[in-house]
Amino acid sequence: MSSPMLLRAVQAAALNTLIALGITVFGQESFSTNLVYSQCIGLSILGLIDFSNQWFIRDRSTQWHRLVLIVPLGASAGFLLGTLLADALLGYASTRYWLTQPRKAIGFLVLSLVAGTVLTYYFLSREQLAAERQKLEIARRQAAEARLKLLETQLEPHMLFNTLANLRALITTDPPRATAMLDRMIAYLRATLSASRQGSHPLAAEFERLQDYLELMTVRMGERLHYTLALPPELAELPVPALLLQPLVENSIQHGLEPKVEGGSITVQARRDGPQLVLEVIDTGLGLNASNGTSGGTGFGLAQVRERLATEYGAQAALNFVADGAGGTRATITFPCKT
């Protein structure tokens, strides 16, 4: 017996007990006798109506009218079956009620019909509510997935345009380096575009894409850019949204390190804080207090990161920016670990 059916049986048994108690107070038989009849009749009605619902109603939205027949027929047949079963268990012949006390027998039948109708309405209402909640949850999940896909398709061209703008600047000032950057970009796009079509990927793959991107930026900035990627082995397989960290790295380079004459370094690291995964991008650039556009992280790529985190994790995720030491910026993403 499945869990929903078992729960319905327990609830029906509780109602049957109350009915038996009421019959005992206003009737003549003992409570034990009334309890046996009440349980046999009530559970028989429930079983027949449940069976009929499973086999004769495939779609309640279009076949609900069949309940008009199923409930009274199931209650009547359950009353007869339950009575015969109780008779067999107690050694009684309840048919005498129909001969000697027909009004009392009809009263029991009407009570069975009412109880069967009430139980059926109660259980069907709960099932319908559960089904609607499930549909709503599926619709929300599909909407969230569609929104994530839209954000990803917006983010990929943004990254590509930024890279092409950097390449254009090098073409006139340093053609050999522009050629090297173009070769690196081709290799980077070949490795990245297929991976970015996935909704999520292991954290190790996210760090691999960052390394490709940082190598590409190293061609442009030369010795002015140094980077460190720190990923603990035990976190390598944790799933994260694809291209989640790249906008933060882009922001650090574009607004923090590139405008700085001597350049600087960028560190990307991951750690676990209880149930939360913490990802940090730390740079030694101009910092939050400089007029470099990084205060609060309001750029397009960063807005996309915030939206993706909100869509995927809701209030459980956060993106924060703080000044790091004497200069530079620390961007921190936190969200629940998914194993």
Fold blueprint:
Elements (H helix, E strand, L loop, with lengths): L2 H24 L4 H26 L3 H4 L3 H24 L4 H6 L1 H72 L1 H22 L3 E3 H19 L3 E6 L8 E3 L4 H12 L6 E10 L2 E8 L16 H14 L4 E6 L5 E8 L3
How is this structure best summarized?
The protein has 339 residues and is of the alpha+beta class. The protein has helices at 3-26, 31-56, 60-63, 67-90, 95-100, 102-173, 175-196, 203-221, 246-257, 300-313; strands spanning 200-202, 225-230, 239-241, 264-273, 276-283, 318-323, 329-336.
Please name the defining characteristics of this protein.
rod-shaped, alpha+beta, two-stranded antiparallel sheet, five-stranded mixed β-sheet, 339 residues, 2 domains, Heat Shock Protein 90
Report on the architecture of this protein.
The structure is a single chain. The chain is of the alpha+beta class and 339 residues long. Helices cover 66% and strands 13% of the residues. The chain has 10 helices and 7 strands. The strands form 2 sheets. A 5-stranded mixed beta sheet has the order 2-4-5-7-6, covered by helices on one side. Strands 1-3 form a two-stranded antiparallel sheet. Strand 4 and strand 5 (276-283) form a beta hairpin. Helix 2 packs antiparallel against helix 4 (67-90). Residues 290-296 have low confidence and may be disordered.
The largest sheet, given as strand count, sense and whether it forms a barrel, is: 5 strands, mixed
Largest sheet strand order: 2-4-5-7-6
As for the number of domains, it is 2
Structural class determined from secondary elements: alpha+beta
CATH superfamily of the largest domain: Histidine kinase-like ATPase, C-terminal domain
In the CATH hierarchy, what is the class of the largest domain?
Alpha Beta
- What percentage of amino acids are in beta strands? 5-15%
